Amino acid sequence: MMRLFVKFACLSLLSNSAKVYRPGTQGFVDATARWDASTKPGLELVVMVASEIDVQHTVEFANAHNIPYLAIGGGHGGSMSLNNIRGGIGIWLRGLMGVDITNNGTEAVIQAGQKSGEVIQALWDKRKMSVTGGCDCTGFVSPVLGGGHGWLQGRYGLLTDNLLSARLVLWNGTAITVDEKTPELFWALRGAGHNFGIVTSVHYRVYDRVTGEDSFSTVAFIFRQDKLESVFTVANRWLEVPNRPMELSHFTNVMINPAIDAKPSFVFMIYWQGDAIPASYKDQIKALSPVSTVERRLTMNTVNSNAGSDFGGPACAKGASHRTYPVNLMKYNLKSLRRAVDIFATLPSPFSNSVIMLEGFATNRVEQIPEESTAYPDRRSKILASPLLTYPANDTKLDKMAFEFGKQLRTALLTDAKVPLSAYVNYANGDENNRAVYGYDQWRLQKLQGLKKRYDPKGKFSFYEPIQT
């Protein structure tokens, strides 16, 4: 490692604001701390870049010395494939900061070091809003590259549907603009973008804040598990309605809370983009006799606090292991869901902070955009189901248990769906095949494979859900 540092110290082309961190320094600790402690990319140095040119020089240096490298954004990706890098350089993008409104207020130039919550707040302060993720502490750009589910997608599409262009550093250090003038690479960047380079900034579509549309009315109902089938029968009716309201989303966390019940309980949350949730939705759930009900009105820049995924909230805390096992679903199969909850009930005590997440973002605009228009493969599913197993870090025995329970829970959720596994790539566990995360259409996989060979011929960007060529 010291030999690597000595070599790197000889590189004088970095800007004065760039920093190089070795293991043991606070900068290295900050850069490599991940939301999932069981994901441990093997890095020997971290370069905090301060410009796109710094990224280029770092890539060129690493290539010259045959050193692998990995871009670091918010540190939330949990795919096991990230563990495949060894003796690498981390290219920490946190030094690339800025959110600037341009093109008569219709676009924002967002630098790759920004976190999602920072972008939300910056837009809010400029009386703008856009499709943004449900967790403040993730990086902003990385979710865009994997499709990106989030607030306002029912109205404006996925995060990736609002990408207008990106600055991209390729494997050889060349920096290019990717947009509609480079249609094939632009297609690939929107859904499989982690495979093609390091994005340093994006031009992103933004919208004026409109009173009513820039806030959410929410209600959270807590139920014991015996109401599972009743609640999700109602939720299925909402999903089945043609042209369901774009303002309506719902989310669930199945959890273990002994203060409520020794068996699993769940919180069912309704989000309505606007001033008030129509009584027809709220009353249907309230009639099922929840243990408790909490109503809140939240603005766009505070909505992530409702689920504890704001800065400082429990969902953003690092230090524990967090393994996700995503499954995309068209509806709630009640038998499958019950089977999963029964398995969840058998988790041993080290997993007591685990949940089964069921995210039902509005999908109106998402479904209207043709599937073939981007590399993101699944615009028909209406639910992101994801067992999230949380447990103490640095315990290989618990890692193995998490993997086994995760597989069981995923299988249970999928059993009666009678479709092959489709998994949201941004939540990927790392045991999925390419078809599960990039789609089952043969033309789609062949196109991605061809573009991977063309734009990353040496496989430099193959540490997050890599396209197999």
TrEMBL record:
Q: Which cofactor does it need?
A: FAD
> PROSITE patterns this protein is in?
FAD_PCMH
Domain (FAD-binding PCMH-type) ranges: 39-209
Q: Which residues form the signal peptide?
A: 1-17
The keyword Signal appears for this protein: yes
Record keyword Electron transport present: no
InterPro entries the record matches? BBE (IPR012951), FAD-bd_PCMH (IPR016166), FAD-bd_PCMH-like_sf (IPR036318), FAD-bd_PCMH_sub1 (IPR016167), FAD-bd_PCMH_sub2 (IPR016169), FAD-linked_Oxidoreductase (IPR050416), Oxid_FAD_bind_N (IPR006094)
What keyword terms does UniProt attach to this protein?
A: FAD, Flavoprotein, Oxidoreductase, Signal
Similarity comment: Belongs to the oxygen-dependent FAD-linked oxidoreductase family.
Protein name as catalogued: FAD-binding domain-containing protein
Give the species: Lentithecium fluviatile CBS 122367
- Lineage in the entry? Eukaryota, Fungi, Dikarya, Ascomycota, Pezizomycotina
